[in-house]
Specification:
2 copies of one chain form a homodimer.
Chain A: H1 3-21, H2 28-35, H3 40-46, H4 49-78, H5 85-100, H6 109-119, H7 123-130, H8 132-146, H9 152-171, H10 173-179, H11 189-205
Helix pairs in contact in A: 1-2, 1-3, 1-6, 4-5, 4-7, 5-8, 5-9, 5-11, 8-9, 9-11
The structure holds a DNA duplex (30 and 30 nucleotides).
DNA sequence: GATAGTTTCATACAATTGTTTGAAATGCAA
DNA sequence: TTGCATTTCAAACAATTGTATGAAACTATC
């Protein structure tokens, strides 16, 4: 078995086990058993258990961040360098929501792993998350360009609340289903994204934009377009 | 030393250590050393480490939940049995935000403990949080009374987003400060509550209420009154 | 096919951890 | 004081865990 095969087997097995059991009670011995490799292989290939977890998480994070930046770039290109605020928020919350929610992702190991990482916060993951600020600054900058004149503070709060709604929906998915007795459809990812974006936008614009929308929530049916706002 | 003294000493020491170091690397030996009691005392008085953590968390949770219900009751009494939606949201997010944020709470062990419990999610705490749904149902019911005719689904999403903003602000407090370079004042708890309430209300009412507010966020200065909406 | 570098393997290590035990101490009522 | 129940204590237990080791197996290059 080549070196890369072992590495990949460990990564795959670890992600699978972490996804279904959580970080708390998965040991290196569990992982190597699942991967059918020797115990020492983890330390040989990754240095330590924490570095293995870190590599798993950064891989998925980079993926999400790349999608985010791609969407942001596309939105800015579309607007001639200045993206619409709702498109910026959409680029921010869309990728993680699509990555973690949705019926097709139900069986996705990657999705469940990221949900775990979002719920249980282990040291190696926390360290990586702390570096996320630099990534978010790019979105803050885009928002500043989209809303010149708007106070920076308001902008940060809007960004913060948008992430709050997205992440909390991922984290507390099960609870919301239970609380709403299944009425909230967590499989309708597009609808959820629309909701988060709509609320974030009124939070940022102070409501004057939303005033044009009907009393019935604009996201009730179908996808929210810019015309709806 | 009487039995209760030992119990209390353990509880206090544990909360202090968990608050400052997190659940991950505080052992029973650390706790008993801090409390100046024997190692076996924890198992004698609490049964197990997990039950100690659970008791710490339920104590604080009950406290928050009681405050919430008190505020809800007061709001309903004020409105003759039917509370205004913004007062319901305020009763929901006010207590945890006041409990965990604010300059005076900076040194509060209880506050820092609850923040830890919100960030790191250990099994005994997760188990308790899962029971929180019943508590939230009371707020869903109050909201239903406040907004008759409104689709239940919208109501749950509004409740969910309100909690999202409150909890995420508690969880990611430090990151928001760093991201905003200190521009977001996390010590202005009343202002934060106003923000969360304002956004939640427009999320719930679909924006038609917020349309009467100025373009500048209504929460920029002072406390948001119902007239502001 | 010999050699050097890489990877695998079984095993041991060392430290930590929550928990248990049984005796000693303490408190308290009769 | 005696006797009984509660509480404390030092010590040991038992199991787990991440990591390190050194030899063996393997791979690729010359």
């Amino acid at each position: 078995m080549s070196s890369d095969q072992t590495r990949s087997a460990i990564l795959a097995a670890a992600e699978r086990l972490y996804a279904e059991r959580g970080f708390g009670d998965v040991t290196l011995r569990d992982i190597v058993a699942e991967a059918n490799v020797n115990l020492a292989a983890v330390n040989y290939h990754f240095g330590s258990k924490d570095e293995l977890i870190a590599e798993l998480f950064v891989t998925r994070s980079i993926q999400t961040n790349r999608e985010r930046l791609n969407e942001l770039k596309a939105a800015e290109d579309k607007g001639g360098g200045r993206a619409a605020i709702e498109d910026i928020i959409r680029a921010l919350v869309g990728p993680p929501l699509r990555g973690c929610l949705g019926p097709d992702r139900e069986g996705s190991t990657a999705a469940r792993f990221m949900i775990r990482a979002s719920i249980e916060s282990v040291p190696p993951i926390r360290r990586i998350k702390n570096r996320e600020v630099d990534h978010l600054r790019k979105f803050a900058a885009a928002m500043r360009r989209a809303m010149p004149g708007r106070d920076d503070t308001e902008l940060y709060w809007g960004l913060h609340f948008a992430l709050a709604m997205a992440h909390h929906t991922i984290r507390e998915k099960e609870r919301l289903i239970r609380l709403s007795d299944g009425k909230c459809d967590l499989d309708d990812v597009a609808g959820i994204i629309d909701r988060v974006v709509a609320v974030s936008v009124v939070a940022l614009t102070g409501g004057e934009v939303a005033s044009k929308s009907p009393a019935r929530p604009a996201v009730a049916h179908g996808r929210l377009t810019r015309q709806d706002l």
